[in-house]
């Protein structure tokens, strides 16, 4: 039994279409997050950080950089991937996509790849913006890129699942706004969970975002709230859980069409 050839032209066409959509709205896609990051530095880095001591041996302004990048990547990855696959469902072009000579893995690769590319570019833009406010040193650059790619791909897969399961535009915003953002703020994005009382620190360890932010922060400063291998394991576990969900959706056809 022959294995179907990889349809690189189909994947590339979907990828380019999704990337073009981001560049048609550069203000929303890239400038708005830069302005938001600058405001975070003004509020947290300058106003609050000026009265704080160093955190884990680094200045507070440098300490919050990984958390700011993760906050943007979480929300943007979910938003880009969920809207990318939901819009064809909303307009009815999902039928053309499903009948085209493009396999489910190729569809996922194209949509998730485009969303991940946009999110990683955004993360690098925020990193460059942060350097305008504080000197940022990356102690483990290779691991930083690895964590960035893995976390971005994971949340893009998660967003892809949300886009398929959503039955309205309001549902696309529900999980990012009411679940992911609060978990990020409570996950040590702007503080170390080591400063919390023992009971609340133990509670924080049930927040999966803690492990993602902690592992990513380790790549910058060499310190983390939880073991790095635990962070890597949690990230890989979330990645494979999202991958399994995508495979199940395409095998069953669940909510692929409105």
How does this structure look, described?
This protein is an all-alpha fold and 258 residues long. The protein has one domain (8-252). The chain is 74% helix and 0% strand. The protein has eleven helices and no strands. It has helices at residues 8-23, 26-48, 60-63, 65-91, 94-99, 104-131, 141-165, 169-185, 198-204, 208-221, 228-252. It is globular.
Main beta sheet strand tally, sense and closure:
none
- Please state the CA-atom Rg, rounded to the nearest Å: 19 Å
Helix content: over 70%
CA-CA gap between termini:
34 Å
Total domain count? 1
Mean pLDDT: 86
Residue fraction in strands: under 5%
Shape: globular
Run of helices and strands: HHHHHHHHHHH
Unreliable runs: none
Enumerate how many helices there are, as a single number: 11
* Secondary structure category: mainly alpha
Secondary structure: number of strands: 0
């Amino acid at each position: 039994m022959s294995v179907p050839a990889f349809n690189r032209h189909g994947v590339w066409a979907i990828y380019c279409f999704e990337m073009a959509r981001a560049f048609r709205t550069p203000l929303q896609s890239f400038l708005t997050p830069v302005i938001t990051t600058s405001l975070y530095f003004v509020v947290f880095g300058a106003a609050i950080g000026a009265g704080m001591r160093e955190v884990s041996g680094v200045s507070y302004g440098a300490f919050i950089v990984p958390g700011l990048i993760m906050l943007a990547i979480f929300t943007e990855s979910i938003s880009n991937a969920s809207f990318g696959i939901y819009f064809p469902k909303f307009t009815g072009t999902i039928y053309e996509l499903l009948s085209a000579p493009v396999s489910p893995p190729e569809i996922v690769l194209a949509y998730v790849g485009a969303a991940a590319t946009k999110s990683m570019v955004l993360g690098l833009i925020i990193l460059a913006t942060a350097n305008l406010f504080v000197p940022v040193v990356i102690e483990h650059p290779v691991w930083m890129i690895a964590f960035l790619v893995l976390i971005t791909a994971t949340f893009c897969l998660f967003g892809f699942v949300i886009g398929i399961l959503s039955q309205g535009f309001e549902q696309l915003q529900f999980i990012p706004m009411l679940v992911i953002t609060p978990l990020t703020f409570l996950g040590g994005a702007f503080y170390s969970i080591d400063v919390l009382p023992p009971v609340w620190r133990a509670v924080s360890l049930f927040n999966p975002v803690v492990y993602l932010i902690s592992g990513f922060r380790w790549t910058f400063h060499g310190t983390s709230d939880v073991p790095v291998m635990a962070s890597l394991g949690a990230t890989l576990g979330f990645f494979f859980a999202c991958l399994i969900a995508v495979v199940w959706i395409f095998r069953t056809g669940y909510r692929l069409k409105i």
